C-alpha cells in the first residue's frame, strides 16, 4: 500500500519524507522534487528501511517533535502555494508531463511523470513560463529527439483539471472551469498546427477528484482520463496498461470505442462564460497580412476551425458544490464558442511604430516624428527619408512601440540593412550590427508568447549612399514576411523639449570641397551645428572622400546677462571666434575630440558675432557647437538664438 508524505529535506541524491503516521523515509531524489512537496510513494521506493524512525524512544520523540514543527511550517507554506494554483494541465506524447498553473496560465511547477519526460526535460526550468510556451518547447524537443515526426501523423493528449475543494465557492469554481475549458481549446489549436500531418489531438477536462486518483496511480491526468473512458466501453485495461502503453495506442483504442458512449445534454450551467479569462491564450489572432492558411504547416483545418470543434470531454465524477447535475457519465464541456465570444472584446489591431528621424547618424538631432506602418524602406542616395532631413545621406531613425505576435513560438527576425542597425525585443538585444556594412541581412531569434505585447525598439543609421532598412520575421506558423502593421503598436509620442524663445533661424554656412576652405561648393543656412556625417559627405555637392571644410558665420544672442562657455565636440580640426576674438584654435587633425572656451561675459538681447571653421581630413566627420552658463545647462545652441550674417 502506498504512503503519503511531505518532503522536509533535499540532498544531492536523496530526499527525506515525513509521513502522516510520523515516519521518516529516505527516497531517491527526482529532478522535480522540492521541500514542502506532497508526494506518494511505495515501500519499494524506500532507499534504506533501517532509516525509518519510529516514536519508540526518547530520542525518537525529540526528533518527532522537531519533525512536527517542520511539518507544520511546511504545511503552512504548502497551503499558501496551493492557493495560487488554478489548475493542473498535462501533455502526453510519450513523454508525460504535468504542470501546475496559476490564474495567468503561468507554470508554477512541473512534474516529469515518466522516464521519457525526465530525459527530455531534465535541463528545463519552466516555472514562470506561459503554459503555451512550455508546450511549444516540449514539442520542439520531441521533434529534435525523433519522437514527433514532420511527415507522419502524431498523437497528442492534452488534459486539465481545476484545483478546488468541496467548500469552493460555486461561482468561482464555475468560472475557473470555463477558464480552463478555454485554455484547453487554445492549446489544442496551437498543438494541432505544429509538426506533422493530420495530427490527432484529444483533449479532456477532468474533475478535482481525478487529480488525486491520477497522482496515486502515478500517471498523468490524460492517461488517467483515457483509462476511465476505455473501461466504460467494456474494454479490459489496467492502470498499469494505461501507464505503460504508447499514447497513440491508447488514443486509437479510445477512438474506436467512444462511439458506444452516451452523452448527457449539456446544462445551461456549463454554458456560462469565463468573464475574467485572460485573453492571451484564448483569442485566436488573425493571420498577418499576406499569410494564407494554405501556407501554414500542420493541421491547418484545426487551427482555423471554430471553437465548436474542440470536442473537449469533461469527466465530472463529483458535481460542483451547489450544482443540480449529479451525473457521473461523460458530458461535453461548455460551448467554448459562446463562452469565448462573451469574454472576448473586439480584437485590437496595430497601426505601426513611432518613428523618430534624425539629421545625423548618432540619433541626437531630431527633425520629425511620425508613425510608420512597417519598417521596409529603400531610400536612394540623395533622397530625404523624412521631411526636414538634409539630402546628404547621413541620417538615423529610431522606431519604438510594441510587437504582438499572433502565435506562441520561436521567432526568427531578419534585418536587411545599409548601414547600421540594432534591434531590441522585450528589452533583449536580438540584433546588434552598428557598423558600416551595406546591403547585408542579419538575423536573431527569440521565443514569444502569442497575442502578448512586447516592447520593440529598432535603431538605424545610414552613413553614405543608399539607405536600406527592412524588418522581417518567420516562425512555425508565420510565413517569412515583413512584420505587418497589424502586429505593431506605436509608443506614445514624447513631449517636445522646451526650446529657448527667440527669432533666430540659424547660421550661414559655406561648404568647401577641400580641407583649406578654398574650393567653395555650397552656401546656405544651418539651423544648428549638430552634425555627425560619419564617412559620408556634408552635402551632395561635396565629394565623398572625407576631405572637406566648412565655415559658419553669424550671431549668437544669449538669453541672460552672465558668463558663457562655448563647447565643441568634433573629429578633425576647429577654430572658433566670438566677437572677432579667437577663443579656440585646434586647426590640426589630432586625437582630440572636444574643446571649450574660457568664460565669456555676454549681454542678454545683444547679438554677438560668432564664426566657426571646421575641417575633416581623416575618416569620420563630426562637429557640434554647444554652450553653458549658470542658467543654461550644457546643450546644443538652438536655432532660435542663432542668426545668419546680414
UniProtKB/TrEMBL annotation:
It comes from the Bacteria. The chain crosses the membrane at residues 58-76. Residues 318-346 are annotated as: Disordered. PROSITE patterns: PA14, RSGI_N. One of its GO terms (cellular component) is plasma membrane. Residues 3-50 form the RsgI N-terminal anti-sigma domain. It is found in: Cell membrane. The keyword Transmembrane helix applies. Residues 348-487, 502-641 form the PA14 domain. It is a single-pass membrane protein. Residues 318-331 have a biased composition (Polar residues). Gene3D superfamilies: Toxin - Anthrax Protective Antigen,domain 1. InterPro entries: Anti-sigma_RsgI_N, Fibrocystin, PA14/GLEYA, PA14_dom, RsgI_M. Keywords: Cell membrane, Membrane, Signal, Transmembrane, Transmembrane helix. SMART domains: PA14. This is PA14 domain protein. It comes from Pseudobacteroides cellulosolvens ATCC 35603 = DSM 2933.
